[in-house]
Write a structure and sequence with these properties.
By secondary structure, this protein is of the alpha/beta class. The chain has 3 domains: 160 residues, 3-Layer(aba) Sandwich (Adenylosuccinate Synthetase, Chain A, domain 1), CATH 3.40.440; 87 residues, Orthogonal Bundle (Adenylosuccinate Synthetase, subunit A, domain 2), CATH 1.10.300; 157 residues, Alpha-Beta Complex (Adenylosuccinate Synthetase, Chain A, domain 3), CATH 3.90.170.10. Strands 7-5-2-9-1-10-15-19-20 form a 9-stranded mixed β-sheet, sandwiched between helices. The structure holds guanosine-5'-diphosphate, 6-O-phosphoryl inosine monophosphate and magnesium ion (MG).
Length: 422
């Protein structure tokens, strides 16, 4: 049996979807345990190209059962749409996808509040996905959340929703927003519940029996370690923990059952939204700026780009107990004559580490770079480590040394097969 957590080692979008799709072949269970549809995981395999927000990325293997744990917040409309997209692609979801009734729901007022808070903060805004994630987790923490368990019972749902709509409309109107209609939400969410009812099943028995039967679990983290509210660049983070420890509460898996932690890291760094990105390439005349920028899966915004930051990845792999690295997007670096790697920072004249600094201080930290020569060759066809040019091999080895965790997989393209296992 293996219980493997696949985590993002940077600010999200490291290629977790690709890694899960590659690693899930032998999985009996693939499970999401944190976040919500702020996540956007891209999977490109023989069945097509998919951008998924809630359904675990293991859904493409018929033998895998896919669980969405109670730690995930759910926007039911997004989940219904996703199930429809999968069905249209002839991927079976019935009796394979199970959603915890403990999962809290994202309601229309969460999305409105997300936008209003962002607007009110102006230049200090987090740059959220505006999917209502922060307000939904805030309601969970302040005992104001609504779960599937509640929607299942008309009377309980009407009561709880009535209280919340009255509360939320006061805040919404005070901030200049338009109030929501409790009746409309009630009708819509009861309809969503009816559609999703076959999928809403307590997932704990799968976990408990699966662990006893020594099944293989692949646990799919959303976001990245640096978006964690405690250890990330607060307040430029997401609404609930993104560390590997979230798997414990989010699914009911005891920590000692976890035997592997795969850290997915991009061969450079990207970040979408606000907050410090020390290695960001800010000079618009530098061709590297455009080369390392990407388009975000969930919001279509530009992902800011920068060089690989070994200090960040060293910290996030340590704090999460990573046992291996799945390094992605090495092919993107093939276009450079020279590639930079940040090995640490200088702040106020001193050498400091990530954990020494607040987000505001990190924004003014100066990365200490090591420059290496690029390989300038197409590597997308490489399937063995030895197929890579010597300088690409050295780049991987340098990362491994600086981070202190072995790189077990190198991804050289977005497709499932564009993967090197060492
Ligand atoms: P996730 O949120 O961690 O699953 O990552 P995203 O799907 O949001 O973003 C990763 C992007 O990189 C997607 O467009 C993937 O298709 C793409 N991708 C993943 N691995 C590779 C790779 O090795 N090479 C290239 N060129 N693209 C990759
Ligand atoms: P995946 O799983 C990248 C970022 C947002 C914003 C901050 C807070 O695809 O890696 P939120 O909507 O969560 O309140 O936004 O977190 N963010 C992500 N960035 N990938 C993600 O998920 C993200 N999920 C949230 O851009 O900066
Ligand atoms: Mg993503």
């Amino acid at each position: 049996m293996t219980v493997t957590i696949v985590m993002g080692a940077q600010w999200g979008d490291e290629g977790k979807g690709k890694a899960i799709d590659y690693l899930a072949r032998d999985a009996d269970f693939v499970a999401r345990f944190n976040g919500g549809n702020n996540a956007g995981h891209t999977v490109i395999n023989p069945l097509g190209e998919f951008k998924i927000h809630l359904v675990p990325s293991g859904i493409f293997y018929p033998r895998a059962r896919c669980l969405i744990g109670g730690g995930v917040v759910i926007d039911p409309r997004v989940l219904i749409e996703e199930i429809e997209i999968l069905r249209a692609a002839k991927i079976r979801v019935a009796k394979r996808l199970f959603v915890s009734p403990r999962a809290h729901l994202i309601l229309p007022y969460h999305k409105i509040l997300d936008g209003l808070y962002e607007q009110a903060k102006g230049a200090g805004a987090t740059g959220t996905t505006r999917r209502g994630i922060g307000p939904a987790f805030a309601d969970k923490a302040s005992y104001n959340g609504i779960r599937w368990h509640d929607v299942a019972d008309e009377k309980i749902f009407a009561e709880k929703l009535g209280v919340q709509v009255a509360l939320k409309n006061k805040i919404i109107t005070a901030l200049g927003g338009a109030p929501v209609s409790g009746d409309e939400i009630f009708a819509d969410y009861r309809k969503y519940y009816a559609t999703l009812k076959p999928f809403i099943v307590e997932v704990y028995p799968f976990i408990a029996k699966g662990l006893r039967a020594k099944k293989n679990f692949l646990l799919e983290q959303a976001q990245g370690a640096l978006l964690d509210p405690d250890w990330g660049t607060y307040p430029f983070v997401t609404g609930a923990t993104t560390l590997t420890s979230a798997a414990t509460a989010g699914l009911g898996i005891p920590p000692r059952a976890v035997n592997r932690v795969v850290a997915v890291a991009k061969a450079y760094t990207t970040r979408v939204g606000g907050g410090p990105l020390p290695t960001e390439i800010l000079d618009a005349s530098d061709p590297a700026q455009h080369a390392l920028q990407e388009v975000a899966v969930t919001t279509g915004r530009i992902r800011r780009g920068g060089w690989f930051d070994a200090e960040i990845v060293r910290f996030s792999t340590q704090v999460n107990g990573a046992t291996e690295i799945f390094l992605t997007k090495l092919d993107i670096l093939s276009q450079f004559d020279e590639i930079k790697i940040a090995t640490g920072y200088r702040w106020n004249g001193k050498r400091v580490g990530y954990a020494d600094l607040s987000a505001e201080q990190l924004a003014h930290a100066e990365p200490v770079y090591r420059a290496v020569r690029g390989w300038r060759a197409d590597i997308t066809g490489a399937r063995q480590f030895a197929d890579l040019p010597a300088r690409a091999q050295q780049y991987v080895e340098t990362i491994e040394k600086l981070v202190g965790v072995p790189v077990k997989w190198v991804s050289v393209g977005p497709e499932r097969e564009a993967t090197i296992k060492r």
